């Protein structure tokens, strides 16, 4: 069967769609949410859990699953039918495919691929790049960094001040003194010398929010992720706080802004086949999107929110025996008497497997899978994201919606 559309046809369709919707304004404020590893079934599991909490059969919709536009995106890389996060991040940020393990470098291992964040910034908008993982980890790094190996975290981190974006946030910076702690200068010092104010936690951000450029991390010198939603200690930095902080900084620009926010720990919990962790990370991701949705409600004709994933992780299936599954077992973990009990569960594969067995939930892999991922959208030019598309189409459509040349 012949391909219906090629690249030129997709570009033509974009032009037609934007042209037909010219009564809509160009998007002034764009939120680009990426649920790392979040497939359709991760979302369904979270919704089913909420319904079972109410004692009913069914699924209670999340904030973003009620967005009016739904599509799906293929996620294969240039080298593999199953992508890794750096190749997927490259596709979602630059509109170009690359090989697994490479970050914004073309398959020829030479050509540099710049993310749309650079194009949008050059057009006068403020830009934020954020995650619950370290800022120089694969997905957030794909919006500012370039490297033949995604694991060269120190070199990638050095690109943060070079990018010059107004806001960065995440758990911290991986390998702040290099892989073997052999560098003479910390990434934090390099970022600070590049003109960034470093805020350690949300309370510290509140005191420093008037700075021109900010790097927000959970604690001073951290090279860790933000704490998991399940069992999260009081006062820990959350994605909702990160999005709130980003809006505070970015909306000062009268031209508008672009914010990428990654729910990175959906992937990490799914790699462990941790049902409880996966559900609560998905719910936490939804809470952050609700912050953007509240902003959209204040600026409905100027805002675009796009929610997608880089790939699916775990091959999760709702059911493994018979015609029922039971997510109420999750409450045993949620209601654990102490944070240490939750930590013990999350670090004990036997306990994780026992919960899956009791819940009658199946997993096919501890890695990624190759199916298409969901795309939801709301706001100006949201219709561009309906239907089938490739992950490389999404950044092109965002630029089209903003009136920025791709």
Question: What is the structure about, briefly put?
Answer:
By secondary structure, the chain is an alpha/beta fold.
Level of helix content? 25-40%
| CATH superfamily grouping | Alkaline Phosphatase, subunit A
Radius of gyration: 20 Å
CATH class descriptor name: Alpha Beta
CA distance, first residue to last residue:
30 Å
The profile of the biggest β sheet is: 10 strands, mixed
What average pLDDT do the residues reach?
A: 93
Stretches where pLDDT is under 50 for at least 5 consecutive residues are 1-5
CATH topology: Alkaline Phosphatase, subunit A
For this entry, give a set of tags:
disordered N terminus, single chain, globular, 15% strand, 406 residues, Alkaline Phosphatase, subunit A
Structure description:
With 406 residues, the protein is α/β, with parallel strands linked by helices. The protein has a single domain (25-402), classed as Alkaline Phosphatase, subunit A, CATH 3.40.720.10. 37% of the residues lie in helices and 15% in strands. It contains 16 helices and 12 strands. The protein has helices at 7-20, 40-53, 85-94, 116-122, 138-141, 153-157, 159-163, 187-193, 202-208, 239-250, 265-271, 275-298, 330-334, 339-346, 349-359, 393-402, and strands spanning 29-35, 69-74, 126-131, 167-170, 197-200, 214-217, 257-263, 303-308, 312-313, 368-369, 373-379, 387-390. The strands form 2 sheets. The protein has a 10-stranded mixed sheet, with helices on both faces. A two-stranded antiparallel ribbon has the order 9-10. α9 links the parallel β5 (197-200) and β6 (214-217). The longest helix is centred in the C-terminal third of the chain and has 24 residues, at 275-298. The model is unreliable at 1-5 (pLDDT under 50).
């Amino acid at each position: 069967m012949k391909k219906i559309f090629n690249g030129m046809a997709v570009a033509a369709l974009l032009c037609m769609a934007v042209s037909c919707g010219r009564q809509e304004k160009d998007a002034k404020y764009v939120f680009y949410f990426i649920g790392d590893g979040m497939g359709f079934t991760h979302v369904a599991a979270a919704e089913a859990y909420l319904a079972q909490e109410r004692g009913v059969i069914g699924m209670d919709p999340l904030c973003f699953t009620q967005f009016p536009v739904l599509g799906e995106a293929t996620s294969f890389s240039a080298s593999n039918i199953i992508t890794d996060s750096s190749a997927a991040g490259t596709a979602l940020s630059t509109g170009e495919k690359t090989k697994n393990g490479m970050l914004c470098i073309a398959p020829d291992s030479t050509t540099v691929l710049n993310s749309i964040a650079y194009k949008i910034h050059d057009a006068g908008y403020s830009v934020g790049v954020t995650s619950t993982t370290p800022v120089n980890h694969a997905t957030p790094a794909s919006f500012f960094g370039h490297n033949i190996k995604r694991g060269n975290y120190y070199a990638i981190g050095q690109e943060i001040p070079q990018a010059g974006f107004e806001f960065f946030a995440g758990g911290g910076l991986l390998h702040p003194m290099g892989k073997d702690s052999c560098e003479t200068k910390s990434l934090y010092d390099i970022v600070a010398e590049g003109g960034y104010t470093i805020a350690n936690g949300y309370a510290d951000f509140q005191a420093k929010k008037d700075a021109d450029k900010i790097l927000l991390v959970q604690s001073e010198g951290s090279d860790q992720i933000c704490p998991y939603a399940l069992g999260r200690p009081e006062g820990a930095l959350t994605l909702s706080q990160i999005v709130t902080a980003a809006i505070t900084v970015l909306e000062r620009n009268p031209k508008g802004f672009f914010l990428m926010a990654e729910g990175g720990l959906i992937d990490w919990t799914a790699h462990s086949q941790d049902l409880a962790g996966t559900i609560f990370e998905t719910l936490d991701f939804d809470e952050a999107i609700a912050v953007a949705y509240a902003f959209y409600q204040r600026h409905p004709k100027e805002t675009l929110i796009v929610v997608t994933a880089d790939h699916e992780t775990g091959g999760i299936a709702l059911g493994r025996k018979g015609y029922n599954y039971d997510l109420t077992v999750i409450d045993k973990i949620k209601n654990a008497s102490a944070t240490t009990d939750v930590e013990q569960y999350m670090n004990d594969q036997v306990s994780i497997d026992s919960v899956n067995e009791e819940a009658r939930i199946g997993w096919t892999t501890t890695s990624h899978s190759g199916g298409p991922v969901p795309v939801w959208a709301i706001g100006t030019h949201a219709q561009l994201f309906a239907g089938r598309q490739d992950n490389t189409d999404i950044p092109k459509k965002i630029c089209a919606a903003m009136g920025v040349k791709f």
